[in-house]
UniProtKB/TrEMBL annotation:
This is TonB-dependent receptor. Its main location: membrane. Residues 46-63 have a biased composition (Low complexity). The keyword Signal applies. Keywords: Cell outer membrane, Membrane, Receptor, Signal, TonB box. Residues 46-66 are annotated as: Disordered. Residues 98-193 form the TonB-dependent receptor plug domain. Belongs to the TonB-dependent receptor family. Residues 1-28 form the signal peptide.
Length: 988
C-alpha cells in the first residue's frame, strides 16, 4: 500500500532531497527495481545526517528531522515513487521550480535529459533527428535557458550558449531542477529559467555497496525504407557505488553507451530569396522595391533520405571524503562523447531565379508555390543528385572539486573550483552529381535541357516532376561534378571559482544569511576551413567530372508516403573519391584567395577569405557577488518562508577581429599567414569589447495558508547574455572613392545581455494521493538582438582603424573621410511581455480496490502568449511571426498502472505551432506545425534483482512539419520512424 501523507513529504525533504533526491547509484537501482515495492527506513538521526549535507533551509530541515522520529518505515513503489519525490522537492523548495527525481529520470522512455525535461509543466523541446535536443521554457528558446551541472555553469557544443541536453545520458544524472524564478545565490544567465542537473553524492547513499547494469536493444521501423541505414542499435549502462573506511570515503562510477540509428525521410523547402515577373500582371499583391511587377521565387527544394549512427559514451565519477563530522571534500567528473556519422541522399533542386522560364505559375499572394521551371542560358535551373556525408564529433568535459566546512554551529563555508569545456568538430562533406548529355563522351557536356514541375501542398508532400527523371538512375548520364568539405570547429572552455558562506541566526524573522562571490573566465573559439573541387552548376574543364562505374552506384527507390518520387543513384562515397583522387583527398584549408595584398604561392583561384574572417576568439570574464537573507517567520498565523537578496555581476567581454586596412602599416596591417602558407597583408588584428555591471534583485515568498496548501510569490530582475558566437568580431569596413566609410558585421562584441523583470504567483495544494498546482507568470523583456543599419556611425570613435583621409588616384589630392553606414547586430529590437498560465495535477488512485490501487495519472498544461513579434520575408511577402520557441499551448500527460511487479504507462506531450530554426538549414527561422509525441513502456520485475522491459518511442511516428509564414509555403516535412526497445536490468 502506498503511504503518501504530508508528514511523509516533510520527512523526505529532511532526508536531503531538495537538490539530490536519490544518490547516483541509487538512480541505477531505481531503474531496475522501479516495479518492485521498495522499503525506506527513515529515522530522526538519518534525517539529521542527510540534512547536514545541504547548505540551505537548515532550520526547516532540523524541524523536519524532529518530526521524522514519529515514523519508522515508509513504503513506496514504482513510478509512484518518482512522482512523490518530485512533489516533495517542489513543495519544500524555496523558489518557483519544477523537479525530477532519480527514478523519474532513469525510467524509460528517456533517452537523454532533453526527453526527461519535456515532461515538466511549461517545458517543450525542439526535435533534431527525431530526438529532443534543445528545450524551450515558458515560450522562450534554448538561448534564454541557463544550465548548470552540480551547481556549475555549463558550456556547450552548439557553438552558442544553448545546451544540447541530448549530450547528458539520463542514466548518469541523479536529479534535475528547473528554476523558473531565481534567487540571489543562483548563477545569473536564465531569462527563461535555469536547469540544474546533479550527479552522485556517494556518501549519501544508504547501501554500503550497489552495482546496477542495464542492457537494451533497439529497432527503428523506418530504417528499412532508407538504403544504407542501420535498423538496430543498443543502450548499455552500469553504475557502482561504495562506502569505505567506516562510511567516511565514498566512491561512485557510472558508464552509459548509446548506439542508435539516425533515420529520416524528408522534404525541405528553401527560402524565397529571388524575384521574377511570372504573370506579366502588376496587381495589388505585386511589387518589390527593385521589381514592382515581380513575384517571389523560392531558391528550390530538397528530397532526401537520411541515415547514419549516433554514438554517445557518457562517464561519471565521484570521490567523497568526510574525515570528520563537519568537513566534506568531494571531487567529481562528468564526460560525454557524442559522435554522429550521417549521410543525406536524394535531390537538391535549384529553380533558377530570374533567368528561368516559368510556365503555369501558381501563386499564393505574391509568392510562387508551383509551376514549370525551364532552364535558359541565363538561369541555373538544375536538379543535383546529392550524396552528402556529415560527421560530428562532440566532447563535453566537466570537472569539479568542492569543500564543505561547518566551521561552527552557525557558520558554513563552501568552496568550489570547476572546469567546463566543450569541443565540436563538424565536417560537412558534400558530393554533387549532375546529368550529362552523354557521360561516356570524351568531353562530356552538361545537360542543359532541364524542366522542373512542382506544386506545394502546404503541410503535405508536394507534387513534383522532372523531365530528366529517367537519367537519374543511368550511370551513362549521371556524373560526379563537385566535392566540398566545410569543417566548422568550436571550442568553449570555462574556469570558475566560487566561495559561499551561510550564517545561521537566532532570529524570529531571518533564519540565515547567505553571501558569496564567484569568478569565471571563458574562452570561445571558432575555426572555419574549406576544400572544394569541381563545379556543382556545370562541368569544370580544369577540374573535370567523374564518370561512374557500376560498382560505385546503386539505384534507390522511395517507399511509403514518398514512393511516387523518382528513383536516383546512391553513390558509394569512398569508391567515388578514390577514383577521383587516387593520390588522396587534399585536406581542408584556410585560404585568403587570390585577391589584392595576397601572396599566394599555391596558385588558388577562388577567394575563400570568409573562412579566416569568420574564425576568431571570444573572451568573457565575469565577477559576481551576492547577499541573500532566508526568511522563516509567521505573518499572523501564516508561516512565511523564502528569501530576498541581490546579485551584482561585472562582465568584461571582448573578441578578436581582423579589420581590412588595405595593407596600410600605419593602421596596423600585418602579414597574416594561414595554415598552408598563404599570406594576407590587408588586415590589422585587434581585440575589442566592453565592460558592464548589473544589479539583479530577487525575492521569493511562500505562504503556508493551510497544512496542505501554500501560495508562492516571486519577483526578480533577470538577464541572459547574447549567444557566445554572436560576440565574435567578424567585422569589415571599407572606404569608397568618395572617402565614405561603410562597414558591416553579422555579430558584435559590443552586444549587451537580454534583460527582463519577471513575476510569479502560484497556488499549490497537496493531498494524500497527489497534488494540484496553478501558476501565473509575467515577464517584461527589454530588447532582443536584431540586425540594424546605423547611419553616420563613428567608426574611429568605436575603435576602427580607419584613415582620416584618402588620396584621389587621379588628382593626387587628399579627400577627408566621412562616416557612412555600419550594419551590425544590436540590442534594438523592441521587447515586450511574455505571460502565461500553468496547471499541473497528479493523482494516485490508492482508494481503489487493491488490483487497481496502482493506477495513477500525472499531467500538466500551460498557456503562454507574448506581444513580441518579428518580421520574416523568407516566404517572400513580409509577415509577422511569434517569438522564437513560443507555443501557445503545451501539455503532457502520463497514465500509469503498477501491480505486483508489473508496470505499464503511456505518455504524450503536445505543443502547438511555434517558431524555430528549420531542420538542416542554418539561419532559416520558420513556423513549425503543432505536434504530439506519444511514448509507451511496460516492464516486469522477474526476481528481486532481475527486470525486463519493453518500450516504444514516438508510437505514432509523429513527423515535424514547418512552413514559411503561411502554411501554403512548405518548409520541412520530416519522418523519423518509431523506436522499439527490449531490455533487461540487473541489480546486485
Amino acid at each position: 500500500m502506498l503511504k503518501f501523507k504530508p508528514s511523509l513529504l516533510t520527512v523526505a525533504m529532511a532526508a536531503g532531497m531538495k537538490m539530490m533526491f536519490i544518490p547516483s547509484t541509487a538512480l541505477a537501482a531505481e531503474q531496475t527495481t522501479n516495479n518492485a515495492e521498495t522499503e525506506i527506513e527513515v529515522s530522526a538521526t538519518a534525517a539529521q545526517n542527510a540534512a547536514s549535507t545541504t547548505t540551505s533551509n537548515t532550520n526547516s530541515s532540523d524541524a523536519a528531522a524532529e518530526e521524522a522520529g514519529d515514523i519508522e518505515r515508509i513504503s513506496v513503489r514504482g513510478y509512484s515513487r518518482s512522482l512523490i519525490d518530485s512533489i516533495n522537492a517542489k513543495r519544500f523548495g524555496d523558489t518557483v521550480s519544477e523537479q525530477l527525481s532519480a527514478d523519474d529520470l532513469g525510467s524509460l522512455p528517456d533517452v537523454s535529459m532533453a526527453d526527461a525535461l519535456t515532461r515538466l509543466p511549461g517545458i517543450s523541446a525542439v526535435r533534431t533527428g527525431g530526438q529532443a535536443a534543445e528545450i524551450n521554457i515558458r515560450g522562450m528558446s534554448g538561448g534564454f535557458v541557463f544550465s548548470t551541472l552540480n551547481g556549475r555553469e555549463q558550456v556547450s557544443t552548439s557553438g552558442s550558449r544553448s545546451i544540447e541536453f541530448d549530450q547528458y545520458p539520463s542514466e548518469l544524472i541523479t536529479s534535475a531542477a528547473v528554476y523558473k524564478s531565481p534567487k540571489a545565490s543562483l548563477i545569473e544567465g536564465g531569462v527563461a529559467g535555469t536547469v540544474e542537473l546533479a550527479t552522485v553524492s556517494p556518501l549519501s547513499k544508504t547501501d554500503t555497496h550497489n552495482f546496477v547494469a542495464n542492457v537494451r536493444g533497439m529497432y527503428n521501423d523506418r530504417a528499412s525504407e532508407v538504403y544504407g541505414a542501420e535498423e538496430y542499435g543498443h543502450r548499455v549502462s552500469f553504475s557502482y557505488q561504495g562506502k569505505y573506511l567506516e562510511d567516511t570515503l565514498g566512491v561512485a562510477v557510472g558508464y552509459a553507451r548509446l548506439d542508435q540509428p539516425s533515420v529520416a525521410t524528408q522534404f525541405i523547402g528553401l527560402a524565397y530569396n529571388d524575384v521574377k515577373d511570372v504573370d506579366g500582371i502588376v496587381g495589388d499583391m505585386d511589387g518589390t522595391e527593385d521589381c514592382p511587377e515581380c513575384e517571389y521565387i523560392s531558391e528550390g527544394f530538397e528530397l532526401q533520405h537520411l541515415g547514419g549512427v549516433e554514438r554517445r559514451n557518457g562517464y561519471m565519477g565521484a570521490i567523497e571524503w568526510a574525515p570528520v563530522d563537519n568537513f566534506t571534500l568531494k571531487a567529481d567528473a562528468f564526460i560525454s562523447r557524442f559522435d554522429s556519422e550521417a549521410f543525406a541522399r536524394g535531390f537538391r533542386v535549384k529553380l533558377g531565379g530570374q533567368g528561368a522560364s516559368v510556365a503555369n505559375p501558381v501563386l499564393d499572394g505574391n509568392s510562387v508555390i508551383g509551376g514549370t521551371f525551364n532552364r535558359t542560358s541565363k538561369s541555373f535551373t538544375r536538379v543535383e543528385l546529392v550524396n552528402d556525408d556529415n560527421q560530428d564529433f562532440d566532447e563535453v568535459d566537466n570537472y569539479g572539486i568542492n569543500a564543505d566546512w561547518q566551521v561552527t554551529d552557525n557558520l558554513n563555508v563552501n568552496v568550489d573550483v570547476s572546469l567546463s569545456s566543450a569541443k565540436s568538430d563538424f565536417r560537412n562533406g558534400l558530393l554533387w552529381s549532375n546529368v550529362a548529355v552523354d557521360a561516356t563522351a570524351d568531353t562530356p557536356l552538361f545537360d542543359e535541357n532541364v524542366s522542373i514541375s512542382y506544386l506545394l501542398n502546404g503541410l503535405d508532400l508536394p507534387d513534383v516532376g522532372f523531365n530528366q527523371a529517367d537519367a537519374f538512375t543511368d550511370i551513362d548520364r549521371v556524373m560526379v561534378s563537385k566535392y566540398g568539405i566545410y569543417p566548422f570547429e568550436n571550442e568553449d572552455e570555462l574556469k570558475a571559482y566560487r566561495v559561499d558562506f551561510e550564517y545561521t541566526l537566532d532570529n524570529e524573522y531571518i533564519s540565515s544569511i547567505e553571501f558569496g562571490a564567484r569568478y569565471s573566465d571563458r574562452t570561445y573559439s571558432n575555426d572555419r576551413s574549406v576544400f572544394e573541387y569541381g563545379n556543382d552548376g556545370a562541368f569544370s574543364k580544369s577540374e573535370p567530372p567523374l564518370q561512374l562505374t557500376s560498382d560505385m552506384a546503386t539505384v534507390v527507390n522511395w517507399e511509403g508516403d514518398f514512393s511516387y518520387f523518382p528513383s536516383y543513384l546512391a553513390i558509394d562515397l569512398n569508391s567515388a573519391l578514390n577514383a577521383w583522387f587516387p593520390s588522396g583527398i587534399p585536406q581542408p584549408v584556410q585560404t585568403w584567395g587570390n585577391a589584392g595584398g595576397v601572396i599566394d604561392p599555391k596558385g588558388y583561384t577562388t577567394n575563400y577569405s570568409w573562412s579566416v574572417l569568420q574564425s576568431g576568439d571570444v573572451f568573457e570574464k565575469v565577477t559576481s557577488g551576492y547577499v541573500m537573507a532566508n526568511i522563516n517567520m509567521e505573518l499572523g498565523d501564516i508561516p512565511v518562508t523564502g528569501n530576498f537578496g541581490v546579485r551584482v555581476v561585472h562582465t568584461d567581454q571582448s573578441a578578436t577581429m581582423l579589420q581590412n586596412v588595405e595593407g596600410d602599416p600605419e593602421l596596423g596591417a600585418q602579414n597574416i599567414t594561414d595554415e598552408i602558407g598563404i599570406i594576407n597583408q590587408n588586415y590589422a588584428p585587434t581585440v575589442q569589447g566592453l565592460t558592464y555591471t548589473d544589479y539583479l534583485p530577487s525575492i521569493n515568498l511562500n505562504f503556508g495558508i493551510t497544512d496542505n496548501s501554500q501560495i508562492r510569490f516571486a519577483a526578480a530582475k533577470v538577464m541572459s547574455r547574447p549567444p557566445i558566437n554572436r560576440l565574435a568580431g567578424d567585422i569589415s569596413a571599407t572606404v569608397n572613392d568618395d572617402g565614405e566609410i561603410n562597414g558591416s558585421s553579422t555579430n558584435n562584441p559590443f552586444l549587451i545581455p537580454f534583460y527582463a523583470t519577471q513575476y510569479d504567483l502560484s497556488y499549490e495544494r497537496y493531498f494524500e494521493e497527489g497534488a494540484f498546482v496553478a501558476a501565473l507568470f509575467y515577464k517584461d523583456i527589454d530588447s532582443f538582438i536584431d540586425t540594424f543599419a546605423i547611419e553616420g556611425y563613428d567608426f574611429k570613435g568605436n575603435g576602427f582603424n580607419v584613415p582620416d583621409y584618402i588620396i584621389d588616384e587621379d588628382s593626387g589630392e587628399q579627400i577627408k573621410t566621412t562616416n557612412g553606414t555600419y550594419t551590425t547586430a544590436v540590442n534594438n529590437a523592441d521587447g515586450g511581455y511574455i505571460r502565461g498560465l500553468e496547471l499541473a495535477y497528479t493523482q494516485i488512485f490508492t482508494f481503489l480496490p487493491d488490483a487497481f490501487s496502482g493506477l495513477g495519472f500525472s499531467g500538466s498544461y500551460s498557456y503562454t502568449q507574448s506581444e513580441v513579434e518579428s518580421i520574416t520575408s523568407l516566404g517572400g511577402d513580409s509577415v509577422k511571426q511569434s517569438l522564437d520557441g513560443l507555443s501557445d499551448h503545451v501539455a503532457n500527460a502520463t497514465l500509469f498502472y503498477e501491480y505486483e511487479g508489473f508496470e505499464t504507462r503511456i505518455s504524450a506531450r503536445y505543443r502547438s505551432d511555434f517558431v524555430s530554426e528549420q531542420v538542416a538549414i542554418n539561419e532559416q527561422v520558420v513556423n513549425f506545425d503543432a505536434e504530439t509525441v506519444v511514448d509507451y513502456q511496460a516492464s516486469y520485475q522477474v526476481t528481486e534483482g532481475l527486470g525486463v522491459l519493453f518500450q516504444v518511442n514516438n508510437l505514432t511516428d509523429e513527423p515535424t512539419k514547418s512552413y514559411f509564414g503561411t502554411e501554403s509555403k512548405t518548409g520541412t516535412i520530416q519522418y523519423f520512424g518509431r523506436e522499439f526497445y527490449l531490455g533487461v536490468n540487473y541489480v546486485m
